[in-house]
Fold this protein.
Amino acid sequence: MRKIWDIPGGIHPPENKHQSLTDGIGTIAMPERLILPLNQHAGAPAKPLVKPGDRVLKGQMIAEPVGFISAALHAPTSGTIDGIADQPVPHPSGMSARCIELVPDGRDEWCDHQGVGDYRAQPPTALLELIRNAGITGLGGAGFPSSVKLGPRQPIDTLVINGTECEPYITADDSLMQARAPEIIEGVNILRHILGNPETVLIGIEDNKPRAFEQLTEAAEGTGIEVVEFPTKYPSGGEKQLIQILTGKEVPSGKLPAELGIVCQNVGTTFAVYNAICRGEPLISRITTVTGQACGRNGNYEVLLGTPISHLLAHNDFDAKACTRLVMGGPMMGFTLLDPAVPVVKTTNCILAGSKAEFPPAPPAQACIRCGLCAEACPASLLPQQLYWYAQSQNHERLEAHNLFDCIECGACAYVCPSRIPLVQYYRAAKGEIRRHDAEQLKADHARQRFEFHKARLEKAEAEKAAKREARRLAAEAAQRKTATSEAPSSGPGSADDLIQAAKARAAAKKASPDEQKAKLERSVEANRNRLKIARDKLAEGRDQGLDSDAMAKLEVKVNEAALKLKTAEEKLASFDDTSPGKGDSTVADDAASRVMDRVTASRREQLETTVASLKKRIASAEQAIGAETADATIAALQSGLEKQRQKLAEAETALAGLGPDGDQKVTDPTTVDAASAAIARAQAKAAARASMTPEQKAREDLHALDQRIAKARDKAQAARAEDSEHAATLESALEKLEEKRRGLIEALGAEPEETVPERPVAESVPAPSAVEPHPVPNDDPAAAAIARAQAKAREMAAMTPEQKRRVELASLDERIAKARSKLDSALAEGSEHVEALQGALEKLENKRRSLAQQDSDGVNPEGGA
Amino acid sequence: MIEIITQEPLLAALVAMVGLAVAFGAVLGFAAVKFKVEGDPIVDQIDHILPQTQCGQCGYPGCRPYAEAIANGDEINKCPPGGQATVNALADLLDVPAPELDAEDGDQSDVKKVAYIREAECIGCTKCIQACPVDAILGAAKQMHTVIASECTGCDLCVEPCPVDCIEMRPVPQTISDWQWTIPAPLGERLQGLRSADIIATDRDTGTRAA
Ligand code: SF4
Ligand code: SF4
Ligand code: SF4
Ligand code: SF4
């Protein structure tokens, strides 16, 4: 005989169990419809696998578990799915939840199912998966998914099977143990196997169930399973209480039994496991006690899940008038059902239809007299009266300090309270309140995180914008410098096109720098060599195979072609090597750099001369290539290229001629010399040179450029002053700025500031005025381009007569007005709220234009011309 | 050594004291560096109590700025979404008497609400997205927008910017999973009506039914 421990507290309420224990387990007629809530268990609701109208077979899974803590749902009988909708479910709130409705077809047709032959040959994980898919949950209490409880992380040394059923009236487990002891023992064996054969396996039964004890003892003979009987006391069926009674171990507050190496399962669950593993039948029915004085007949029934409770009651001669309260569960821990139409679910162990005698109206609660009876009765060794006080004052901190969450809501304290205080309801409310608070806190933390992320995101976006702005500013400055140093001649309407073309040319040049060109040529030589080899191989192969002459001829032609191509490629490479000077001792990059440096420093004449020379060279090599080429298409292409080069040469030569003996002379005719492209070439060369310069060199370069600009600006300012022009002040301030910049640069350079600004090089031509169109600066960045444009314009304007200026302004105003109009139109079309603002802006522009036009007309030559 | 101590007791004591002071000072200084507490715990604690609705009804751009303001001496009763419970908790934390909630125009209702966009009316202006402090609105320019209800704190900030007024605050429906027992009415009320709250633990031995 095993040593039995006692638990603190506990009560002995009237048992009222005999009424329902008269005749075994009965059956119930098939109801007209079954209502299967998707959430009959603790955890996430299952996800339906069927849709209305589907025909399902008995045992077919109709909803699958979602996530770890969840359970599957199966059709309790064959029939048609009628709908998936919200229905009242058995819950203290009386609220509705999602349910699958099934209309039985009366055939009760099983789906394919079979048990596992020898479960001992199966690994525990496979069995656990079967249990999970069978939808088994704890049938005694909260409906926790069994597969989760049976797969603890800790090693288990004790398996406790709960056959206590301590609550009054309920006899479902008792009748099950009496009727199906061998199956239960087999189920325990399966659980043992799953848990890795724990040393101790105990079945705990209260001594008010002698027949069940006998049956189980008999069935357990020789299995090593100990069936233990212990004195009846409420609530010894609580998991922690039963463990304490059977093992003497107290499960610490906030811990799980598994942490002590103990797993506890209800006998009903054990039977369901047996059914699932040995017969392959999922959990589709359970034993439910129907009892209470309002029922003419009391008894235990094997009920299909989803059976409406009203159906069950009708079967038991329910007298609705006599019933004061319909309870699901026992009188101590159950809850009142507001609607008898709710279905039987996995946790429905008892339906108690109480009469007025059984459930008299609760007497009025009195004030707590601090008698301490509740503390004596509490099986969890809590201080119920303290909990009561704190629950009333919603002092969550104190409640948790008094281990409110260890309360199993057994109702023993309320049962003994002389003041009839509904203590349990206070605890339930307080627990709910704390849980809600915790959930809110969690949500608040989440919101805080999201808010912080939101802030960080905005900051990042702001920083990015600032960086972009800065980059744009820098790019604009660079562009400005470039335009300033290269003095892009702005004359002629063709200049814009020229610039664009130059940009394109630059892109092309970038694509094929000398290095790359050479590499490309080398690659093509290589490829052609390979091709030739392949063609030769093929020819040899064909000869071996004895191909007919036609095919052979073709192959031969191919070989010849390949050979020819190879030759051209080789020649090209050779001629390229010729044209790239200085190849050999120094690296190509250095060459390029020095070349462009040469070009930068060379005077215009020299530049043109070199251009002419290089063009001539290129033409010569192209001619050579044409001579070597045999294919028509290639020749044509080469010739067109040659033509272009010749043209260029002609241009360059005329430019050279136009330059006259003095290369420093101002270029007057923009059509004879492509001044713009020359300038661009200069700028490019400079940029390329800069790329290969050290920062110090760069700074010096900048300095030089600045010096030039300053000199020019000075000249201009002087001229302006001499003319007493209104621009003198502006020019002077610009000059100051330039000088400041220069000082900054010198400082940065750490060099001795040069005392005198060098003479303005005469080579720099004065920008030709009168271009109305802003110059498009070849730049990807639209903002930088815009800035550069604006600057170029400002420069132009500075050199213009007032009348010209007005014209330009007028033109730009017209443009702006047109733009504003189109914007306004689109805004109107979209119904945007900006319409008004846009209209206002447009009006202003128009006013401005009017006044400008006025000036223009009434002062045709107001300032005598500039 | 002994002679010095006996001959110059005052000096010896002085030296010993200064030596001890230096030694302990070093230990304390080391501890202060080694076990330095990061951040500003009081602001964090206050922020933890605030409901994180981020609605700005307190006059600060979010709960954290208000927490900082409280730490710098601002009133603790300016958060309407938190309600009196938050004020009490703050008073508790800061050990000051709890003032009444200052909620003249603040929205302080017990019903939790989330924003809802009537999607048919949404013109896709993205104004609400910019207003939402917790990025709970999903959408793109000229596309229909929607609120991720589980992320929405119900702060109300997106309602006003909507040019077509298609955002409304809807109460969150109670579901079975967030239902909770209510605390029984206070004792006085219960004694009046004699209709006690429902309890199940009433199967007392009334003598009318034999066990
Ligand atoms: S039994 Fe009732 S009256 Fe007595 S201390 Fe507990 S709560 Fe108070
Ligand atoms: S309901 Fe809670 S406090 Fe009351 S006796 Fe049971 S465990 Fe203890
Ligand atoms: S009023 Fe709004 S923003 Fe201010 S603390 Fe309260 S919830 Fe946060
Ligand atoms: S969706 Fe609207 S109400 Fe919800 S958090 Fe965002 S701004 Fe506030």
Summary: The radius of gyration of chain B is 30 Å. Helices of chain B lie at 2-7, 9-34, 41-49, 63-71, 83-94, 127-131, 187-193. DSSP finds seven helices and four strands in chain B. The first strand of chain B starts at residue 113 and ends at 117.
